[in-house]
Design goal:
alpha/beta, 7-stranded mixed beta sheet, about 35% helix, disordered C terminus
Length: about 650
């Protein structure tokens, strides 16, 4: 920062020797020509983290300015007007430059005004006539600025001297805090009432959300938010050094207020030290504080057999339900749906996608290491943003995740939840060096397998009427094609606006089978169906007891979140939670933040692992699903001992409190 040799090195690179022009061109004289137009410095870098430039550094720049004939501009917009204990911060160094700028405090806190001082030898007299400005001839601002200067000068500049003494008092109190919290406060620096407190990331942080806040340089903003909401103290970080808290109070602050501020920061850092993230997050994000949930035992990564060189794959995901964030990071508190959604809604605007977890799976011939990249949003929040026209923004977040996965070394990337919808089943992505898969082939394969295995309950598919809700979707259509010949009749369900697409699907199916095919635009038609497959993009349940038959019904629900209202599940309904795959018995892991049990994965995630175990290169579930690839994926899952046995949901009525356990 204060090494002037670095500055001089760049200056030398900008300087050339040009021959002097003469009639005979033999003078042998050279002109030293510097391409530097001017150099602008802040004696104390404000947005750079309240960093004080050494006197020797500034004097070296002054000498370079004189020897290379370019002007030195000294920016005192933040540091001037007595804030540092002198009228100008450059008064501490005796370096004043050729131009000097003032603003901010020049307006006395009442008006906006800026001023430029020019060395007399450089001033051009015509400038006063030629200069024009939208804000020129502002008599009010000029009068206020004039009186502000008089206030600073009166009583032998006592107010400026107060800035120095108050600043020294603050520095001393903050140095005490730095000694108390050396693991959090890296440095306290500045002059007078222009002070910066730089935070650092401590080791051993348990909260995963807190780790991301640190890693993404958001801790300064986080602390600022807590101080504002809890103590009504307004401070902000510096722009280019966001983990540095800027402290630039009024010159009239007294020691009592300083002590209150230091006490508030002390109490805040104590909460950070004791990892009371539930209280901190509740205050910052604006919901009721709740006790932390007892963290489940995090499954450690298994040691990879030395002979198995792992293949790197990745998956882009989001939280299915907002409450799943507690499963991912229990230390933020036991949040309900409303509070969890509020946290994610606010976090989405400031927290970039991040790696939520690593998984390692061993196969017979190779191992697979997966990084899961999470976008901080729930399904409901994601759908809300799509409906608000923010699909391009969401797509960019997905692209950023894929780009990070590529740099990490992944050879294949999959997409969980609604991220496959955002990418139009991978077709909106351009990463030729990577294989891409939506994961939907295994999802469809698992659903078909579940429906076929329902014959164990005495169901004869050949006489059953199959209802497909969301039939024009990628998964719904391929399942309809693969099951149409196995059932007695097919009912295709969709919205009014999808009626034309449903009719085209009916025409295609009619060429494959002679079974009865009916297009439905109202869910009441489900009363005629014995077997129902549902896979819509709705964030809320759409299938309730009143639209189902009174006779035995089997429903395979692969929508995430589910399409079936589990609270109103009648006794005659057998509900299969589709899209869930169990790992081989020898593998033990947990997909945190998914709402699943240990050893379970969403099929879209499992597909990426299976392709990695096969050493697959290139795209797989890309665009419209291929029925043959769905069949092949089912065989692949069985080859690697992934368990596709149906997961049946209990057939008793559930209360709202019980739903989260399903």
């Amino acid at each position: 920062m204060n090494d002037h040799s670095v500055f001089e090195k760049h200056l030398l690179a900008s300087t050339d020797q040009l021959p002097m022009l003469s009639t005979d061109n033999k003078s042998g004289e050279f002109l030293q020509w510097c391409s530097v137009l001017a150099v602008c410095v802040e004696p104390i870098q404000g947005e750079g983290g309240i960093r004080v430039l050494d006197q020797s550094y500034l004097q070296a720049i002054q000498q370079c300015s004189d020897s290379h004939d370019f002007p030195l501009i000294v920016d005192e917009i933040q540091s001037g007007m007595g804030r540092t204990g002198r009228f100008l911060a450059s008064d501490h160094t005796n370096v004043y430059g050729d131009y000097l700028t003032l603003s901010k405090s020049l307006g006395g806190g009442l008006v906006k005004i800026g001023a430029m001082l020019v060395k007399k030898s450089l001033y051009i007299d015509d400038f006063g006539y030629l200069h024009s400005s939208t804000f020129a001839d502002d008599a009010l601002s000029a009068i206020v600025a004039s009186h502000t200067l008089k206030v600073l000068q009166r009583d032998d500049a006592s107010l400026i001297k107060t800035c120095e003494s108050r600043g020294n008092y603050i520095r001393n109190r903050l140095d005490e805090l730095r000694e108390k919290y050396p693991e959090f406060i890296d440095e306290v620096r500045g002059r007078g009432l222009m002070i910066g407190i730089e935070f650092k990331k401590p080791t051993g942080i348990q909260s995963l959300l807190a780790r991301e806040i640190y890693d993404q340089e958001l801790f300064g903003f986080f602390i600022s938010g807590y101080l504002l909401n809890q103590y009504h103290i307004r401070v902000v970080p510096t722009l280019s050094s966001p983990n540095t808290l800027r402290l630039e109070p009024s010159a009239y602050i007294d020691e009592t207020l300083i002590d209150e501020w230091v006490k508030a920061l002390d109490q805040t850092l104590d909460l950070v030290k004791t990892e009371q993230w539930s209280k901190l997050c509740a205050t910052v994000f604006g919901y009721s504080s709740s006790a932390p949930v007892s963290p489940s035992n995090k499954c450690p990564l298994p040691a990879i057999t030395p002979s198995l060189r792992p293949v790197k794959v990745a998956c882009v995901a989001h939280f299915i339900e907002a409450e799943h964030i507690v499963d991912w990071d229990p230390l933020i508190g036991g949040l309900g749906a409303v509070d969890a959604e509020m946290l994610l809604d606010k976090a989405y605007n400031v927290v970039d996608p991040f790696v939520t977890q690593n998984l390692v799976i061993e196969g017979k011939n190779r191992a697979v290491e997966m990084q899961i990249y999470g976008i901080p949003v729930s399904t409901a929040g994601l759908v809300k943003r799509i409906q608000a026209g923010q699909s391009a923004e969401l797509l960019q977040q997905v692209k950023d995740c894929v780009d990070s996965a590529s740099k990490w070394g992944a050879q294949l990337v999959g997409f969980a939840g609604h991220t496959s919808i955002i990418t139009n089943n991978c077709q909106l992505l351009r990463f030729p060096e990577l294989g891409l898969t939506s994961g939907n082939s295994l999802t469809a394969a698992a659903a078909i397998n579940a429906i076929h295995q329902s014959t164990e309950k005495g169901i004869d598919l050949r006489s059953m009427r199959l209802g497909v809700v969301g039939a024009v979707g990628n998964i719904g259509e391929v399942i309809t094609k693969l099951l149409a010949s196995d059932v007695g009749a097919v009912h295709l369900f969709g919205s009014e606006r999808s009626h034309r697409r449903l009719s085209r699907l009916k025409d295609r199916l009619s060429k494959l089978t002679h079974k009865d095919i009916v297009v439905e635009s109202n869910l009441s038609g489900l009363k005629e169906c014995d077997v129902i497959f549902t896979a819509t993009n709705s964030p809320d349940p759409i299938i309730t007891e009143d639209v189902l038959a009174d006779s035995p019904v089997v429903i395979c629900d692969i929508a995430v979140p589910g399409d079936v209202n589990v609270c109103s599940l009648p006794a005659n309904v057998t509900l299969i939670r589709g899209g869930v795959i169990s790992l081989p018995a020898s593998q033990s892991t947990k997909l945190f933040g998914s709402g699943l049990q240990e050893g379970e994965l969403w099929a879209c995630v499992a597909e990426v692992l299976l392709l990695g175990l096969e050493g697959w290169s290139g795209n797989y579930s890309y665009g419209a699903l291929d029925p043959q690839r769905v069949t092949d994926m089912l065989a692949l899952a069985k080859k690697h001992d992934f368990n596709l046995r149906p997961r049946y949901v209990q057939q008793t009525r559930l209360s709202e409190n019980d739903v989260a356990s399903v």
